[in-house]
């Protein structure tokens, strides 16, 4: 500790952290426990304290006194009084409204903070069966709707009403996999299982980087609970991957694991399906035909894989099943639609997280080197770009034809590697696949064809493939060690993290992530936004200007020092 002050606390609840401070890394790790990163200019990182960041801190047992002491210890100037009051008010709201079991048909809502009573009464008026000194008594079917309504008014409910037990399912994790490899939970995976099991509210979210074994943590929790389980994931590829892992690492048998997809509709004690399958309907006015999968079996656990991807209709379904134990798995809780509060209240608070760079240092995930290569548009292309609207500008920049030359150089450079070329625009992806004679996987690629391509990539028969946004989630390609991102969904931090995650499997040793960005265009601005989550995890992007057909390594700059306000 140097005695120098690193943080400026502003009256709008923003924290400015000096990136040049000797204790920058230490302070960054402390304040991320109760705030969130907003932007990263050259000399300062901007964090914001929000209600949900404070609720998560409270839920994870971080004392209010610790938050205030951290700010006081590192403050450069006096902390505005309104910020201290804001922190105390929102932090203390968590745990002041408690949901408990009353009897087999009813729940009890206790309100410990008198000034919240008036706010809450209007939500309870149509549902309260009686009011006692301890609080409001209502039918348990109102449980999810109440929590969802209150969170929209910044009132979190601590739900300790318990859960209905599911049908029992006796199985164990194997000590030796079917593939004849020794198997045991890594220490941080065991910590994740334990954190979920001891969590008083019984449901919550576990955050681990891609490649760190979130599926294994899920299996560990399944073994701990030993009840019928519904697993919801992002794609048919993920469904098959979950089944492979369950068959390989547990004593569950084939006739105990069902797949509920467009190809198969099998309900078993463990059933794996996709978000798209659950929200399928024939038209916008139609019913969600598969919603009853939530209630068809007496589930004891529902696992939401890649929980940050949760579509809005699933939130509505989840509101109706608050009596079921729920586990969210994700690499990042970042959502571009700002629905983190719904994840918090309907799935549960964050109960365990392990830092990306710590896992990298310990050798559990690959060491990653990130580059942003800035490639100019041709003069005629830039002229067209300048006269376009913003949406068209973004597409022109994304599909910059000069990126193809850079792709060719990278393919040559890593000819002995395993390369994923990832993008957003299908026409661009098809052009690249045709030009370099590479297989292409998109959302329309049949599942059996995808499986063959993935197997060929794993076996080394092919060393590079082109893939659309279907590659953002849950594909098991442990040998992939180079990712070339040619286009993306505007400023999606979530997508950037997921794409880096494709090359973090331990088998790849060192990995390389290249984001190709059109120089002096709005793609640069979106690129900065995309990188924010990974910067907060401790990754650094080296910026390389691609000039006169060469990468000018001498002029490379670390991106964290490049950003301006």
Mean pLDDT: 86
Going by CATH, what is the homologous superfamily of the largest domain? P-loop containing nucleotide triphosphate hydrolases
Beta-strand share of residues = 15-25%
Which structural class do the helices and strands define? Answer: alpha/beta
Radius of gyration: 25 Å
- Give a short account of the largest sheet: 9 strands, mixed
Number of helices: 22
Count of individual beta strands? 25
Q: Tell me, briefly, the overall form.
A: globular
Q: What is the domain total for the residues? A: 4
Given as residue ranges, the uncertain stretches (5+ residues, pLDDT < 50) are: 551-565
The CATH class designation of the largest domain is Alpha Beta
Question: How widely separated are the two ends?
Answer: 28 Å
Which second-level CATH architecture of the largest domain applies? 3-Layer(aba) Sandwich
User: CATH topology of the largest domain, which one?
Assistant: Rossmann fold
Give the proportion of residues in helices: 25-40%
